[in-house]
Amino acid sequence: MDADWRPALAASILLRHDKRRDADLLVMPERVVVLSGQAASVLRLCDGNRSAGDIVAELERRFPGAPVADDVTGFLDRVRDEGWLR
């Protein structure tokens, strides 16, 4: 993953919180994905302004001692491969 990449959700995808289920969702034209763990926290930082490196640094600040760099970069790569990030 390129640390200078500025990830953002694809235009057709929305990140929403379902109060009834108390779950974060990625809402797509023909599909809904229920997010687990800290996935929504990571995706909320993907605003097109922050670089991938900035996102990792922010999460390392929030979760000291956690293996953020490997986990987040792998997650962002997988989500980009799915076409959910541009």
TrEMBL record:
The lineage's top-level taxon is: Bacteria
Protein keywords: PQQ biosynthesis
Functional pathway: Cofactor biosynthesis; pyrroloquinoline quinone biosynthesis
Q: Which InterPro entries match?
A: PQQD, PqqD_bac, PqqD_sf
A biological process term (GO) from this entry: pyrroloquinoline quinone biosynthetic process
What Gene Ontology molecular function terms does this protein carry? quinone binding
Q: How does it assemble?
A: Monomer. Interacts with PqqE.
NCBIfam families cross-referenced by the UniProt entry: PQQ_PqqD
The name this protein goes by in its record: Pyrroloquinoline quinone biosynthesis protein D
Source organism: Wenjunlia tyrosinilytica
